[in-house]
Amino acid sequence: MQELEDRIRRDGIVREGNVLKVDNFLNHQCDVALYDHMGAEWARLFAGRRIDKILTIEASGIGIACVAATHFGGVPVVFARKTESKNMDGDQYRTNITSYTKGREYQVIVAKRFLTPGEHVLIIDDFMAMGCAMNGLLEICEEAGVIVEGIGIAIEKGFQPGGSSLRERGYQVESLAVVKSMDAETGQIEFA
């Protein structure tokens, strides 16, 4: 998606350790108009697929998923929580994921009542590098008995194995910007 690539080139900051900072428009301060265009693009890419719910993970995926949901007829958005809260009740799906940027492991939780066996789910998130978060969400989907119709990613680090691994397993992964390489020293970002 050219608009997203242009925005990354203009406002993205490359840091050491293959970190791409896009917090001024994607995952701290939110450009809702850009989110809307991204949602429209995913709706085009997943046209013809039945989508009953969108699944994401807190926190950065929530805004993107909610705006995208408007392009899928306003389907509900379910997000996996990274922390247990006192008002979570009932049975829950749980799995562990490792965050690439934070360098730590989280247990993620989804209340079982929000994923019904046989539902068709689209997973959406802001970033994919190693694919750990996606694999965790896919474990929850498998346990829940839902049908994963596809995976929508805003920015994929194509030089890391997450996306290719999921595609090899047969998932339709639609990343709106695939970073081929980036250089912290020069700030240069190349797209696939």
TrEMBL record:
Binding of 5-phospho-alpha-D-ribose 1-diphosphate, residues: A129, M130, G131, C132, A133
Phosphoribosyltransferase domain residues: 40-147
GO molecular function terms noted in the UniProt entry: xanthine phosphoribosyltransferase activity
Keyword Nucleotidyltransferase applies: no
Catalytic activity, EC: 2.4.2.22
Keywords tagged on the record: Cytoplasm, Glycosyltransferase, Purine salvage, Transferase
Major localization class: cytoplasm
Pfam families referenced in this protein's UniProt entry, alphabetically: Pribosyltran
Subcellular location: Cytoplasm
Catalytic activity: XMP + diphosphate = xanthine + 5-phospho-alpha-D-ribose 1-diphosphate
Domain of life: Bacteria
Pathway(s) it belongs to: Purine metabolism; XMP biosynthesis via salvage pathway; XMP from xanthine: step 1/1
Keyword Glycosyltransferase carried by entry: yes
Family as reported in the entry's similarity comment: Belongs to the purine/pyrimidine phosphoribosyltransferase family. Xpt subfamily.
Function: Converts the preformed base xanthine, a product of nucleic acid breakdown, to xanthosine 5'-monophosphate (XMP), so it can be reused for RNA or DNA synthesis.
Name under which the protein is recorded: Xanthine phosphoribosyltransferase
